[in-house]
Specification:
Layout: H1 33-59, H2 65-90, H3 127-150, H4 154-175, H5 191-199, H6 202-210
Bound molecules: iron/sulfur cluster (SF4) (2 copies).
One iron/sulfur cluster is lined by residues 91-92, 95, 97-98, 106, 108, 110-111, 179, 181.
Amino acid sequence: MKERTLSRNICDANNSDCVKCSVNGKLMCTFNIKDTLYFILPVISAWITLILGIAYGFVIGKINLPILIIFSVGYIGYLIFFFQVWENKMLCSHCPYYAFENDRYVKCYANYGIHKAWKYNPAPMTTSEKVQFLIGITLFAGIPLILFLMIGLYIYFGVSLILTIIWLISMHFLSCSKCPNFSCPLNNVSKDVVDEYLKLNSVMRKAWKDQGYIID
Ligand code: SF4
Ligand code: SF4
């Protein structure tokens, strides 16, 4: 079913054109809290499991105070670096949500409110950036799992692993299948929808064609 896009466009067309647009409803062209909830609920569940597991490990003596401090500072520091600097550059700076010059913050379903630290780059991600992104997201999901394994909290490890798998599956079907950052290695949008969208975004179309992309 076609959806009315209420806020501004991520393409060349007017907002009023969204209702009759061929990709309307097939891409997340505007912020919708439902998309954010689908994306973030498994992540929040995994973080709650992490906090409970760390608290439990601390109470039963499997985690001492120095380890608690080192892990907390290290992991939170990594998250800030990953979202605000690293992923911001290699993934988000290529996204049409990053294109609005007057916005200092990204307003998308996944990273709403993240500061735009880099210049918008409409070209597709490079191979190096794709590899970096996969490494970065593996660390993001894998560090809590490694902690639980190292301190022997196998039930928390199992629950976290299941939640991580649920996140990847739900992201694949509910988010990556409609995300307008097409060159992300996890992106799952069909080529015909990508081509239809590029026909509506002259800046991205030129940058993609310059990199050898062929629109059917
Ligand atoms: S591609 Fe453009 S016109 Fe079409 S639904 Fe998205 S924002 Fe609207
Ligand atoms: S939709 Fe994804 S790639 Fe685009 S700005 Fe948001 S988090 Fe970054």
